[in-house]
Amino acid sequence: MIDDDAIYMDAALEEARKAMALDEVPIGAVVVKDGTIISRAFNRREIDHDPAGHAEFIALREASQVLGAWRLSGCCVYVTLEPCLMCAGLMYQARVDRCVYGAADPKAGALGSLYRINEDERLNHTFEVTSGVRAQESATLLSSFFAEKRSRRNRALVK
Fold it and tell me: How far apart, in whole angstroms, are the C-alpha atoms of residue 159 and residue 137?
């Protein structure tokens, strides 16, 4: 499974690069069922003017459409950054089996950093989480994006 995790995370990283090319925060996600990617997405908050335009939120919604069901049992979500509270909650609501993420998010992560929604026994569903898959590549994309944003802002201020 570890080798498969790296392969699917590579697909999520491809999605993150698409976001970066569009000046969106470079986060990508894919949903996998039975060894097949059934949906792909990247962050679209700026493009769509949508506070719910997170990569994993979009990918989960698309996966539900593909499967014709809101329950995504048997699915694994691969995402380049640890999901926030909203997206972790959606994974719980969708009944996913597993989430694999790249970089941890100490400021907003809900699957290990700040919260552990996936293993909260007060809820009626728990799911497995694997962290740190392609973490360095995921973190580098994010830090490069924000460094470039700061650089552009500073250049604009100098003018």
Answer: 33
Backbone angles phi, psi at 49, to 5 degrees: 50, 50
- What does 87-110 look like in DSSP terms, one character per residue? HHHHHHHHT-SEEEEEE--TTT-T
- Please identify which of the residues 14, 24, 46, 56 carries the catalytic annotation: 56
Report how far apart, in Å, the C-alpha atoms of 143 and of each of 9, 27, 44, 71 are: 18, 12, 18, 34
Checking if the pLDDT of 151 tops 60, the result is: yes
Following DSSP, what letter does each residue of 29-79 receive, concatenated? EEEEETTEEEEEEE--HHHHT-TT--HHHHHHHHHHHHHT-S--TTEEEEE
Asked whether the CA dihedral 62, 66, 70, 72 is positive or negative, the reply is negative
* Amino acid type, 120: D
- 56 an active-site residue? yes
Q: Strand 75-81 to strand 98-103: parallel, antiparallel, or no bridges (unpaired)?
A: parallel
Is 28 in contact with 15 (CB distance < 8 Å)?
A: yes
35-80: pLDDT as tens digits? 999 999 999 999 999 999 999 999 999 999 999 999 999 999 999 9
pLDDT tens-place string over residues 93-103: 999 999 999 99
